[in-house]
Request: fold
Amino acid sequence: MKKFVLMAALAVGIVAGLAKLTAEPSQKTTKIGFSAPVQVPGKVLAAGEYVFRLTNGDSKVEVLAADQKAVATFAGKYDYSREFTANAVARMADNGAGSVLVVKSIRYPGEKYGLSLVY
Reply:
């Protein structure tokens, strides 16, 4: 009986571990274009198209310019939504008159999760 309980506990632990492993995205990339300058943590990006890429499966985001050079790296926090998004989405906020828009979060196409940017 002890052997059965130990095996059941081990199976539950493995299933819980797999759920955690598959719950977090890894190596996700998405292209987002901006028609005006925007702010991400630590950097103002000029208008243009950028690739937002998760690095090494954690919540660090690397932003690449059109020439594939890294222009910014910052932390994000996983952000879950009940709705799927068909396209990449950047949620913006206004910091006041005359200032550039601030990117608050990004969402990946076809996913229910994205990242809230940590400022």
